[in-house]
Amino acid sequence: MEVSKVNVCCFLDQELSDLLEVEVNDLVKYNIVSFLYNNPDTVGDAQFYAKALGFHSPDRTQSALDELVDCKILKRGGPGSSRSAVYSLSDDEVTRRRLMKLWAVVPGSPEHAEILRQLASRSVDHVKPRGRNKDHPTPPLRRGRGGPA
Hints:
Elements: H1 8-11, H2 14-23, H3 27-38, H4 46-53, H5 58-70, E1 74-77, E2 86-89, H6 93-103, H7 110-126
Antiparallel strand pairs: 1-2
Helix pairs in contact: 4-5
């Protein structure tokens, strides 16, 4: 069973489910969008967001920012390439309405916990495996809790 499909559809409408499946589909993106939703006038580059959010990889942050621009959640400004660009929350009303639905899920609720659990699972999938110690191999990931999709 695919982790990203477990239980989310049970409590979210289709629009919000699609947002979490396709656009804001891991914890890095979720944290960037959450930060910008709570600080809507913020503009910064990948280094700024990596530092502000405690991310270890500015390259992964850059990739997430570019993906969020591609799906119109964020807008890119500034000169030249994406490396010198600054990012901010999209002004698009439809996008903002969709994000409002996401933030309407009550923090601490079982629904919110399930969203975070699934985003965390997907985030682990994005991490590139590092060298393994043959004496202490990394255990395999446990996928999902089972149950109906």
